[in-house]
Specification:
By secondary structure, the chain is an alpha/beta fold. The chain has a single domain (5-180), classed as Leucine Aminopeptidase, subunit E, domain 1, CATH 3.40.220.10. It has helices at 5-12, 43-52, 54-61, 99-116, 136-150, 167-180, and strands spanning 15-19, 29-34, 71-75, 83-88, 121-124, 159-164. It binds adenosine-5'-diphosphate (ADP). Residues 21-23, 33, 43-45, 47, 89, 125-132, 163, 165-166, 169 line the site of adenosine-5'-diphosphate.
Length: 181
């Protein structure tokens, strides 16, 4: 990917890394690392459902699930975020089952929904790097590169926040971004 210095500077202002609990983010949309059934689960999915309240599950039940690599949107109910974008990351099965493409697709689909809805800020967790076992460094490279590819040609989302929960992901993101900008 070739970006001019000017483009790189512009994108830099639109990407942020934070550490903490994504359910507390005051943004237009937070992304949920959901599963195909959209019926809630462990990890960040469970935390988001607990914080949003039972209406989130009701809204999810009205949808016909979500395939791996795709994304759907619901209101955020009791969350500070107005919207939740539910995406389904791939389960890591050694790397030869299209995991990288599917993970990139998750980020792209969430970014496209943010574009269509003209979102200012969208917060992403580190999709697939928990229970689904995707190697953290590889997942971070895919996440960051997909966002960097998307932003220059799209006015929305104006800002992407990578919300890292664990120290390891937080340092990986900081390292990759400081090497890029
Ligand atoms: P997956 O099944 O996609 O791997 P997980 O929820 O198990 O989903 O993990 C995805 C990432 O979300 C992990 O890096 C995990 O540390 C992180 N995580 C867990 N709880 C939260 C939270 N409350 N806020 C932000 N990130 C979280």
């Amino acid at each position: 990917m070739i970006l001019s210095m000017e483009n790189l500077e512009k994108i830099k202002e639109r990407i942020e890394v934070a550490q903490g609990d994504i359910t507390r983010c005051e943004v237009d949309a937070i992304v949920n690392a959901a599963n195909t059934s959209l019926r809630g689960g462990g990890g960040v999915d469970g935390a988001i459902h607990r914080a949003a309240g039972p209406l989130l599950l009701e809204a999810c039940k009205k949808l016909d699930g979500c395939p791996t690599g795709d994304a759907v949107i619901t209101p955020g109910f009791n969350l500070k975020a107005r919207w939740v974008i539910h995406t389904v990351g791939p389960v890591w099965r050694g790397g030869k089952h299209d995991e990288a493409h599917l993970l990139a697709s998750c980020y792209r689909k969430c970014l496209s929904l943010s574009f269509e809805n003209k979102f200012g800020q969208v917060a992403f967790p580190n999709i697939s790097t928990g229970i689904y076992g995707f190697p953290k460094k590889d997942a971070a490279q895919i996440a960051i590169h997909t966002v960097i590819q998307f932003l220059p040609s799209h006015e929305f989302p104006q800002k992407v926040i990578f919300v890292c929960y664990d120290n390891e992901n937080y340092s990986i993101y900081q390292e990759i971004l400081s090497s890029l900008f």
